[in-house]
Amino acid sequence: MKYLEVAVEVESGFTETVADLFWEFNTGGVSIEDPLLLWQYINAQMWDAYEFPEKVLQAERATVRAYFPLTADIHTLLGQINEKLKALAIPFNLYFQEIDDEAWANSWKKYFKPIAVGEFLIKPTWEKLPSGEENKKVIEIDPGMAFGTGTHDTTALVLEALPKYIAPGKVVADVGTGSGILAIASALLGAEHVYAVDIDPVAVKVARENVILNRLSGKVSVIENDLLHGFATQVNVIIANIIAAVIKELAPDAFKKLTPGGIFIGSGIILEREQEVLDKLLESGFTFVERQNRGGWSLLVVRKE
Predict the structure, then answer these.
(1) Could you tell me which residue, 112 or 115, shows the higher pLDDT?
(2) 239 - beta bridge partners?
(3) Residue 170 and residue 276 in one domain
(4) Do residue 289 and residue 184 come from a single domain?
(5) pLDDT confidence of 240, banded at 50, 70, 90?
(6) Residue 293 sits in the same domain as residue 159
(7) Where does S-adenosyl-L-methionine bind (predicted)?
(8) CA 49 vs CA 40, 56, 189, 216: distances in Å
(9) Which residue of 58, 149, 213, 294 lies most exposed, with the fewest beta carbons within 10 A?
């Protein structure tokens, strides 16, 4: 299968803005080549300069890349992306090219390095554990064509919140699991069992592989399913790192599937839609627990009393 790689050159301060724009178009994946960020990690002696191409390290601007299946309406999509970029009123250059699925699946690997998020250390399988991080809960991840390496604000917000709500004996459902990173994190925190649910068969395949990589097959079940439709098991915690509209759709069913005192953690919510999502959660019967914001994104935690 062919994919379209869309690359946008922008100043470093606008990389997340462009990445968020790409996610609005349901991209299959985003990678960011930001020389300022790379040099921060290099100067902190977390990464080595020799691992990166000289042209990337010396680039004047960052490059944000996104990937889309090459379909008949791809030219319409490109036009819409271009118009959205113009509306941002920032300098940018837009490039695109066709690539095959193997190049698509491996494109992000060049800049995926170990990164600490809260109690966790997320690392690709081909990287060694950095010295000084031995006390972290290590998640080995190979996101492939599924979203979720821990570097995006939406995922990081959930990873930082999980230790407050996941404890030994808890049963968890991770809805829209993607790469499986949040399901794996829940299992490492001591959850008795985790159901990792996704409607995308590619995500299901990748999540299963990552569960095996982390030797958690006995604690994490990966299921291909549309949200929680037909899901009969009562759980203590539901995680949904998706988008505002889907969280609103999920809210009433999530309330039914939680045990009394159960926790719902929703992320992937743009700040502009935070209140409407919270209103829907409260309307569904939940009580408010907390909110966290970062980089234009919101995480909401509510409880079923």
Answers:
(1) 115
(2) 174, 265
(3) yes
(4) yes
(5) very high
(6) yes
(7) 155, 176, 198, 241
(8) 11, 10, 34, 34
(9) 58
Which range of residues forms the domain containing residue 220?
Answer: 144-303
Out of 25-29, 266-270, 297-301, least confident range: 25-29
Could you tell me if residue 114 is inside a domain? no
Question: How high is the mean pLDDT of the chain?
Answer: 85
Residue 176 assigned ligand-binding role: yes
Token pair of 171 as six digits: 């049963």
Burial 115-127 (b: 16+ CB within 10 A, else e): bebbebbbbeeee
In a domain, 131, yes or no: no
> Per the confidence metrics, is the pTM higher than 0.90?
no
pLDDT of res. 15: 84
Asked whether residue 151 falls in the same domain as residue 53, the answer is no
Assigned domain for 47 exists: yes
- Does residue 72 register a pLDDT over 50? yes
Q: What are residue 101's phi and psi, to 5 degrees?
A: -65, -30
Q: How far is Cα 227 from Cα 224, in angstroms, rounded to an integer?
A: 9
Position 145 pLDDT exceeds 70:
no
Same domain, 61 and 166: no
Total residues belonging to the chain: 305
Residue the block writes with tokens 């407050």: 164
Question: Is the same domain home to 55 and 98?
Answer: yes
241 known member of a binding site = yes
Which residue among 82, 109, 136 closes a domain? 109
What are phi and psi for residue 11, nearest 5 degrees?
-65, 150
**Token pair in block for residue 176:** 């829209």
What is the pLDDT, as a whole number, of residue 154? Answer: 84
Query: 210 among the known binding-site residues?
Result: no
Backbone angles phi, psi at 250, to 5 degrees: -75, -25
Consult the annotation and say whether 155 binds a ligand.
yes
**pLDDT above 90 covers what percent of the chain?**
46
